[in-house]
Amino acid sequence: MENRVRLRVGIIGSGIAGSSAAYFLHKALGNNVEIIVFEKESRIGGRIRSIKIGEEELEAGGSIIHSENQYLTTIVNELGLEKNNHVYDDIGMWDGDSFTFRTGKKKWQTLLKVLMRYGTNPVKIQPLVKDMIKKLSQIYILQEKGESFADPEALFKKLGLYSLSQVTSYDYFHDKNISDRFIHEFMNGISRLNYGQDASMHSLVNHVSLAGASFGGYLFAIKGGNAQICEAMLQRSSAKVLKNKRVTTIQKEKSTNHAKTRFMITTEDGTKAEFDRLVMATPLEKAAIKFVHMELKEENKVSRPYQVTNVTHVLGKLSPTYFGLMEVEQIPSNILTRENSKIPFSSIELCKRNKKSGQLIYRIFSRQKLSEDLLNELFLERSETKTLVWDAYPVLTPTAKWPSFVLETGIYYINAMESAISTLETEVIGSKNVVNMLLKDI
Ligand SMILES: Cc1cc2nc3c(=O)[nH]c(=O)nc-3n(C[C@H](O)[C@H](O)[C@H](O)COP(=O)(O)OP(=O)(O)OC[C@H]3O[C@@H](n4cnc5c(N)ncnc54)[C@H](O)[C@@H]3O)c2cc1C
Fold first, then answer.
1. Which of 222, 255, 287 finishes a domain?
2. What's the pLDDT tens digit per position in 228-238?
3. 212 is in which domain, residue-wise?
4. Nearest CA to ligand 1 atom 17
5. Is the separation of the CB atoms in 11 and 22 below 8 Å?
6. Ligand 1, from 197, 265, 282: best to mutate by most atoms within 8 Å of Cβ?
7. Which of 222, 251, 279 is the last residue of a domain?
8. Measuring CA to CA, which residue among 299, 305, 314, 327 is closest to residue 407?
9. Which of 54, 204, 333, 399 could covalently link to 90 via disulfide, CB atoms 3.0 to 4.6 Å apart?
């Protein structure tokens, strides 16, 4: 490194994007880089967060990882974290009045029911989703070679996937002769579970949701909480993590020598620190950061609307009467829904049985907060109810206005990626892209 001085990199945000950026940077530069992570909260992980309900610790944010997610699967193995496999079985499609579809007890029964309700549609979407997975997987090879892209548009164009992001899922899958019933029930059921949004989202995101739902591999989470992935990556990277430090200002230090441009970070409590490079690892429109002595490019001034998602955990017993059933045991463990203003939730999942009391723990996703009256209607009994409200992910309708991975020469922006897709793995892909860019720049 120049004059044997270590490169100082400041990272804003300790979620999966910020922590993986620290991890990749340290892997590439070892002791030649000094990394400082600023986190406004008192905990690490951002939108990865678990909560305690009963005796159990349950994910209330980013929870499920697919085994085909090559970065996360490798990182989790490297860090020696223990996986818990996650299985979605016993699924019911709720239309507000009845369950229009329910998986069978045996695999052949489910196959028969799928065939009767949805015909060959599930078979027709398989090659489409497989093609998307094949194309997306090319990113790992490109990034391994050190390639990087100026913005998500260039990245997805290179993979041959950008056009999927410019059309709604409704239009795309209609064009592919997928039936309305399959789109409105199955596809919306999954996208409402994953994103609280329907098939008016762009079709790239629905392809990704479908891949997670049905095609090969397995789903997992980390025993003891997914936030351990971020904590362990930060520890491995030897980064200094400053919690409760909200960055309020980034100032470009005026310099006549371009090569020596530096950035001054100021936090809410007045702490100041100077850096050679900065990595923004949080959505810019929510970070409330003032940029001084620099003018952000127009494409980076976009303010993306975010989908609000309420995550409610309930320790109790669901009411069979609400679903027109006789027994609690008859209620499907995973309830998916279609778009219908009468349905006040997006999904309900039976997560666990509480060890001590034997009571059940449910997780409910909803766009609006569930009122006490509604909860009393939904549940026969409740001993604990906890709700977290998230600005969860951008509203992912087709839009050509995506930000760039570079905010200003020397300041990189991982969350540009979220305009295309918001998942843990794609944030890590965004992070690897930014680290490759930074390495090229130095
Ligand atoms: C309810 C829910 C369920 C989800 N389920 C899944 C799932 O099952 N699988 C999946 O792959 N994805 C899932 N996601 C999406 C996934 O969690 C996100 O895409 C991902 O966690 C985003 O990570 P990030 O690091 O980019 O941003 P964040 O996790 O938002 O991290 C940003 C960090 O920056 C900090 N910060 C913000 N502003 C400042 C500032 N001014 N100064 C200092 N620090 C600041 C924040 O406190 C935060 O810690 C889910 C998301 C939600 C909300």
1. 222
2. 999 999 999 99
3. 121-222
4. 62
5. yes
6. 282
7. 222
8. 299
9. 333
Q: Output DSSP code: residue 122.
A: H
Query: Ligand 1 center to residue 295 CA distance, Å?
Result: 26
Single out the residue of 438, 333, 346 nearest to residue 87, CA to CA. Answer: 333
- Verify whether ligand 1 is closer than 6 Å to residue 237 (CB atom): no
Q: Which residues pair with 251 in a beta bridge?
A: 264, 292
CA distance 104 to 110: 4
Does the beta carbon of 46 sit less than 6 angstroms from any atom of ligand 1? yes
Q: Is 392 in the pocket of ligand 1 (CB under 6 A)?
A: yes
**How remote is the CA of residue 413 from the centroid of ligand 1, in Å?**
14
For residue 55, being part of any structural domain is answered with no
**Could you tell which of 47, 191, 285 is best to mutate to test the pocket of ligand 1, judged by most ligand atoms within 8 Å of the CB?**
47
Cβ–ligand 1 contact at 63 (below 6 Å): yes
pLDDT (tens digit per residue) in 166-179: 999 999 999 999 99
Q: What is the CA radius of gyration of the chain?
A: 23
Q: Is residue 154 part of a domain?
A: yes
Q: Does 170 lie in the same domain as 35?
A: no
CA distances to 241, 246, 272, 427 from 42, rounded to whole Å, are 11, 10, 19, 22
Does ligand 1 come within 6 angstroms of the Cβ of 103?
Answer: no
Same domain, 10 and 158: no
The answer to whether the CB of 282 is under 6 A from ligand 1 is: yes
Distance 48 CA to ligand 1 centre (A): 6
3-state helix, strand, coil in the chain (%, to 5): 40, 25, 35
Claim to verify: residue 319 and residue 381 sit in the same structural domain: yes
CATH of the domain at 358: 3.30.519
C-alpha of 434 from chain center: 18
Q: Quick one: 155 and 279 in the same domain?
A: no
> According to the model, what pLDDT value does residue 214 have?
62
Task: Give CA–CA dist 18/8, Å, rounded.
Answer: 15
**pTM for the predicted model, two decimal places:** 0.96
pLDDT in tens, 228-284: 999 999 999 999 999 999 999 999 997 666 567 899 999 999 999 999 999 999 999
Co-location of 213 and 228 in the same domain: no
| Same structural domain, 273 and 347 | no
Q: Which residues share a beta bridge with 385?
A: 314
Q: What is the spatial distance between Cα 67 and Cα 304, in angstroms, rounded to a whole number?
A: 30
What are 343's two structure tokens?
Answer: 């349905």
